[in-house]
């Protein structure tokens, strides 16, 4: 085993003794579960399209090491460099997000992807989320420390613009995540109660408006409230898979749900985990996501830099909320929503975007991060 001396002043040495090694270990464990479930869930999906059984697994095994490299590289950066990286990623992803309306490919009635030769497709909105959380945190922190800085206004305009683009795609699930992260940051920075009340009313009005404006949203809510009102094949099959798996599962490769669900390797990957590995493994995965989210928020709350507190909190909430939405929709706790499970569901865009998110989170929650920042 390689030992890193505490007095090692190299970049790697300082990183090793300041990074949150518990969160890093939990993230690596999540990736390991991702490898296992990709091997279990992807072959039937590949066979349905007439491809090699392990074509999705091979692609994912290219994306995950790349995502790990990106995550570790970003975690070495200082808070100043994290801000700069966030700005670059945000500008690039906004351009691509707008381009989806012109050159985007339509899948299931939504234009969220841009076709890239050799990479299948890229979803720009995945990269907007982590970069926007960091930029919004910086604007809100500047507005709080420098009273004349228009941070609140600029943050509102940025988030509003991103939400408008997401709704036009349409991508209501991603819109909810972006709005929720921003709302948490506003709560942490401190707002008058009337502003918080207005925001809550506006959010509720937005949900009601989405119900009446978008037929697919109305259909999902109606089927959630009244399962007999429409086709609930995917959710019902997913619930059946969990019941079949019981506590310890049927065993690797013994599940049948992956051959029945078109999205078993992406949105419903937890159904495969439940059937083949049982409730115990599902709870382990749930605990890993909860551990990373809560521990990161705890470390962020102890920081002296408001920017780091806001940015790390936003990134942690984003990471945990996306996982919660995926798992909750799989067992019908909320209306069905197509959202990947970080580092476990198949998808290159999701893996790389989450690598950026978690890399920034690990960087900002390193010990004495506030002392390393020069604002």
Structure description:
The protein is mainly alpha-helical and 375 residues long. The chain contains 15 helices and three strands. A three-stranded antiparallel sheet has the order 1-2-3, with helices on one face. A hairpin with a 3-residue loop joins β2 and β3 (120-122). The radius of gyration is 21 Å and the shape is globular. The model is unreliable at 369-375 (pLDDT under 50).
Keywords:
375 residues; mainly alpha; 3-stranded antiparallel sheet; 3% strand; globular; disordered C terminus
Write a brief structural summary.
The chain is mainly alpha-helical and 375 residues long. The chain has helices at 11-18, 21-48, 55-75, 79-103, 125-145, 151-168, 172-189, 193-213, 215-225, 233-245, 257-260, 269-301, 306-330, 348-364, 369-372; strands spanning 105-107, 110-116, 120-122.
For the biggest sheet, the summary is:
3 strands, antiparallel
Number of strands: 3
Strand line-up across the major sheet: 1-2-3
Given the C-alpha coordinates, what overall shape results? Answer: globular
Low-pLDDT windows of residues? 369-375
SSE sequence, one letter per element: HHHHEEEHHHHHHHHHHH
If you average the pLDDT, what whole number results?
85
Strand content: under 5%
What's the end-to-end separation, in Å? Answer: 38 Å
Helical content band: over 70%
């Amino acid at each position: 085993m390689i030992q890193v001396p505490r007095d090692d002043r190299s970049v790697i040495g300082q990183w090793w003794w300041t990074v949150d090694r518990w969160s890093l270990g939990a993230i690596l464990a999540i990736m390991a579960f991702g490898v296992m479930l990709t091997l279990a869930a992807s072959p039937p999906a590949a066979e349905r399209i007439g491809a090699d059984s392990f074509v999705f697994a091979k692609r994912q095994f290219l994306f995950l090491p790349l995502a790990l490299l990106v995550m570790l590289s970003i975690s070495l950066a200082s808070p100043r460099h994290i801000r700069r990286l966030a700005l670059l990623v945000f500008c690039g992803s906004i351009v691509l997000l707008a381009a989806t309306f012109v050159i985007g490919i339509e899948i299931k009635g939504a234009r969220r992807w841009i076709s890239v030769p050799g990479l299948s497709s890229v979803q720009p909105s995945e990269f907007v989320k982590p970069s926007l959380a960091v930029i919004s945190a910086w604007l809100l922190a500047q507005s709080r420390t420098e009273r004349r800085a228009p941070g609140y206004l600029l943050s509102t305009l940025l988030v509003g613009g991103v939400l408008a683009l997401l709704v036009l795609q349409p991508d209501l699930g991603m819109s909810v995540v972006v709005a929720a992260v921003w709302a948490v940051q506003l709560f942490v920075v401190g707002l008058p109660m009337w502003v918080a009340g207005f925001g809550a009313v506006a959010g509720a009005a937005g949900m009601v408006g989405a119900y009446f404006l978008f037929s697919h949203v109305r259909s999902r809510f109606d089927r959630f409230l009244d399962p007999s009102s429409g086709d609930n094949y995917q959710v019902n099959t997913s619930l059946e898979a969990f019941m079949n798996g019981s506590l310890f599962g049927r065993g690797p490769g013994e599940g049948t749900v992956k051959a029945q669900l078109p999205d078993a390797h992406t949105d419903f990957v937890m159904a495969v985990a439940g059937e083949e590995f049982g409730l115990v493994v599902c709870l382990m995965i749930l605990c890993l996501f909860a551990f990373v989210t809560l521990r990161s928020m705890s470390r962020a709350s102890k920081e002296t830099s408001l920017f780091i507190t806001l940015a790390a909190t936003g990134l942690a909430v984003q990471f945990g909320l996306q996982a919660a939405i995926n798992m909750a929709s799989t067992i019908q706790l909320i209306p069905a929503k197509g959202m990947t499970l970080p580092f476990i569901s198949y998808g290159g865009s999701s893996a790389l975007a989450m690598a950026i998110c978690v890399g920034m989170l690990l960087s900002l929650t390193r010990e004495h991060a506030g002392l390393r920042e020069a604002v």
